[in-house]
Amino acid sequence: MHFCFKSSNSNKLTNCRLVLDLLPAKNGEEPTIQFLLEVVDILTNYVKKTFDRSTKVLDFHHPHQLLEGMEGFNLELSDQPESLEQILVDCRDTLKYGVRTGHPRFFNQLSSGLDIIGLAGEWLTSTANTNMFTYEIAPVFVLMEQLTLKKMREMIGWPGGEGDGLFSPGGAISNMYSVMIARYKYFPEVKTKGMSAAPRLVLFTSEHSHYSIKKAGAALGFGTENVILLSTDERGRVIPADLEAKIIDAKQKGYMPLFVNATAGSTVYGAFDPINEIADICEKYNLWLHVDGAWGGGLLMSRQHRHKLSGVERANSVTWNPHKMMGVPLQCSAILVREKGILAGCNSMCAGYLFQPDKQYDVTYDTGDKAIQCGRHVDIFKFWLMWKAKGTIGFEQHIDKCLDLSQYLYNKIKNREGYEMVFDGPQHTNVCFWYIPPSLRGMPDGDERREKLHRVAPKIKAMMMESGTTMVGYQPQGTKVNFFRMVVSNSAATQSDIDFLIDEIERLGHDL
Ligand SMILES: *Cc1c(COP(=O)(O)O)cnc(C)c1O
Ligand SMILES: *[C@@H]1O[C@H](CO)[C@@H](O)[C@H](O)[C@H]1NC(C)=O
Questions:
Q1: Which-ligand-closest: CA of 167?
Q2: Domain membership of residue 153 as a residue range
Q3: Nearest ligand, CA 321
Q4: Is the pTM of this model over 0.90?
Q5: Which of 36, 152, 348, 457 could form a disulfide with 369 if both were Cys (CB 3.0 to 4.6 A apart)?
Q6: Is there a single domain that holds both residue 141 and residue 236?
Q7: Which residue lies with its CA nearest to atom 10 of ligand 2?
């Protein structure tokens, strides 16, 4: 550690520097630059090691261990300033005890990978440190957002890329926007008079749906009982006939069906609902159709795979998270809306201190009033920069490669001894499977086997985390006991990493 550098006007070492020595302090340039270069050094080292397969994915510690403090690293906040040298140690240790989500063997989340251009974009964004709410203070970023949203709408297939949209703090919030604007479309008076101005409204979504729609139902005053779950087939796709039956049933009870959520790439199975068939029903009964492409939206960039979303252009709104399948650093999620102006209609409050109508520029670029937030983080720049750097074609290659890798995994294990697939023929990169340890292989199906199998994936996962070699998710679903859900969105992953995962599951699970 060499952060106690020489003072500029004497040859003896001064005391270690403190934050007060940095800009805006007088003569603060030199220590500031030195400090930042040290930070960059820590970060670039971390980046380099993240891509090195001999590095562990994580160095697991229990919460109480981290809270008690590790050697030289203490989470407690202090009244007195710490030296910059200690601050650098804190930076290094924060990364050390974290999880390397960019590691080629990190498969735990739908968001993974570490895109270098995206990272640079995030650094720039923090350096600019501005707020998306007005053109006044974010002129370049606001225009980038408008332009990128238009491009995304073109990919959805809305004529001329017309429509509306915003980047939001994640898919759950983007989904919530869709419910809000659907309600505003049919019952605008709810904005001023509240839910008593509307009949009892019901929302429909897949039983495999991410919990965010239920959460939106609760948060927006619909009530979770008015979120009706639709049955799915064995691959997790909504059955359109079930939707129609449930709409008719709701109407007979005197309720008002409002909104249907179709999923393009469900979180666990990666299932794509049949959008065209659902759209037919929505048109027939005059319902808002939202397509949740938080996970699957990225496939629109692939000529080979975009057919899985066919019919998406008939949606009234679409959620699409570039921070998942497209590898954009967290967070980056868009809500896209076919009808122009409706986001503003639904959410604007025209705060006089931000959105003065008499500014010298075209104030339609003050997009902040469309949001339910006030201040909004700049999520666009890293995405825009990645798009510039890769071209649309680069995203397409990334997506095709991830789907090829998961096909490789599927082919590898579908007939392999000790594996059972949860469903056949994956549509997205989700491959869901049980690993059956030798001790369970001869056992007849029944409660005992189920209970034992239920404990296998969590045990393997715990050992994986303790040894830090790889990470993959697991969960139960409906009546199915815990199974592994493998997903690939990490651009660093290769076939050898898939092979490694399987070897590791077998190594750790063999004696269970
Ligand atoms: C991940 C996911 C969400 C939620 O997105 P966040 O960005 O985590 O809020 C919603 N829907 C689906 C289908 C998802 O996979
Ligand atoms: C729609 O369903 C998907 C998954 O099936 C879910 O992720 C999402 O939260 C739901 N969104 C809305 C707004 O209903």
A1: 1
A2: 131-378
A3: 1
A4: yes
A5: 348
A6: yes
A7: 213
